[in-house]
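PROTEIN DATA CARD
Card holder: 3'(2'),5'-bisphosphate nucleotidase
Chain length: 328
Origin: Gimesia chilikensis
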Amino acid sequence: MTETLEQELQTALLAVRQAALICRTVQSAITDEVLEKKDKSPVTIADFSSQAVICRALHNAFPEDPIIGEEDAAELKGPENREFLEKIVAELTADGIQDPTPENVCTWIDYGGAKTYSDRFWTLDPIDGTKGFLRKEQYAVSLALIVEGKIVLGVLGCPNLPFPGENPTAGTLYYAIAGQGAYALPLVREQEPKRIRVTTTSDFSESRFCESVESGHSSHSHSQQLAERLGISKEPRRLDSQAKYAVVAQGEADIYMRLPTRPGYREKIWDHAAGVLLVEEAGGEVTDIHGNPLQFDQGYELKNNQGVIVTNGHLHSLLIQSLDELEF
Ligand SMILES: Nc1ncnc2c1ncn2[C@@H]1O[C@H](COP(=O)(O)O)[C@@H](O)[C@H]1OP(=O)(O)O
Ligand SMILES: [Mg+2]
Ligand SMILES: [Mg+2]
Ligand SMILES: [Mg+2]
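Structure generated from the sequence above:
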């Protein structure tokens, strides 16, 4: 990568930080402001507010860049959801965003409406782990830039993950640029970025894995069988969202398993892109369950991949081999 991506990095860090702080405000006040999407998954004022501010910032800085975002404003435009839209407007007004009229908010959200692959695009999950967000547990704001099918920049805002090596619940902002390493910044405090690295564990008996809280997103029974086969005895760490990638990248777990619960599900690119680069730049390895690289040039889904396996690198090939043998 000869380009420095400095402007992209600064724009992305500023936007994700702002969105993460908005999410934190909404999470601390959360009541029952949830919409149900067509696929029955929840979406909140914070998901829409986060997508609005990030897409607005990206559009201002890089008007030509398509954004493949998770949410769209279609449902917000219906009269039955006017009150919900007004709440987003009120939230963005309180956050000091300029001119957040209902129309502008919908326009900003829909900047994230690209669906197809292009040579250079952003992908955004305004809140990854909405279920964790609603439980007041882990969630992440995830943004990545993909150029010619390769993830070149990833930013992950994790408002409820403590800064590595510190206790307070102040939250952490992670970023990685291809070829330049993975870093953590406190979400609120000004500080030099701290380089993060995966563990050097090469023995499964000393390893710990993490996985989804939701057994509907990743099979807990299969991960347990695999753990037994490999001699992993430590309890898994269960947490929502791409925070799992951050936990592996900063060496707090050695493995993240995402094992399919049904054959037809295809992972979405915004659920992985930022996390993948973070782990790779921290020295780790990411593939699907068959050991194939994740392909980010197939549109909004990882069409040619099934599940995801993330490790510190040392444990990767043996883990994939055991998965193969288990033939789930
Ligand atoms: N059957 C499934 N398998 C894997 N991931 C899923 C499945 N259904 C939903 N998801 C996605 O898992 C992500 C959360 O993952 P985690 O459990 O690791 O926190 C969400 O983005 C969610 O997408 P969606 O936004 O459509 O709900
Ligand atoms: Mg969702
Ligand atoms: Mg989401
Ligand atoms: Mg998600």
